[in-house]
Design brief:
single chain, 154 residues, alpha+beta, Alpha-D-Glucose-1,6-Bisphosphate, Chain A, domain 4, 3 helices
């Protein structure tokens, strides 16, 4: 059994929650804002299940930077999207992700949170470089991209 971890980052976006929700609950839309887009120009993607919402599934396989894994939407409300995230390469891990949307007077506050456990190789790596520092930057980059896409669409 590993040590639990949580990574959380937030951003204020000048767009309605529905606009942001549409960019988050449809994995086809993630190519517009995901912080990991561009890591592998030859990334293999596959989609299954419904186009969006609970049961929608996205899998990828790429180079060493992109790795291999899958995501499935497991929960959906007007103010949150819950995702089961599984990494197969370069390490194996199973995490839960929530994108929380909180309406504000100027748009929406978006909070991206991932929970998991440090196990195996990542357990060792996290002692040298905290996972929050490694992946936190990716979350910040993704939220900045999501902000740009959502505000342009608003």
């Amino acid at each position: 059994m590993g040590r639990p971890f949580t990574i959380t980052r937030s951003a204020s976006i000048a767009a309605d929650p529905q606009v942001i929700h549409g960019l988050v609950d449809d994995f086809h839309e993630w190519a517009k804002w995901s912080p990991w887009e561009g890591l592998d120009p030859d990334l293999q993607r596959s989609y299954s299940g419904p186009d969006h919402g609970v049961g929608a599934r996205y899998a990828w396989k790429g180079n060493k930077k992109a790795g291999e894994g899958s995501m499935e939407i497991t929960g959906l409300t007007p103010d949150a999207v819950d995702i089961d995230l599984r990494f197969l390469q370069p390490w194996q891990a199973s995490n839960t992700v929530r994108l929380q949307l909180s309406p504000t007077s100027t748009g929406t506050d978006v909070t991206w949170t991932m929970h998991g456990e440090h196990v195996g190789f990542m357990g060792l790596m996290s002692r040298v470089m905290p996972l929050d520092r490694m992946l936190g930057k990716d979350f910040e980059k993704g939220l900045a991209r999501l902000k740009a896409v959502a505000e342009q669409a608003a």
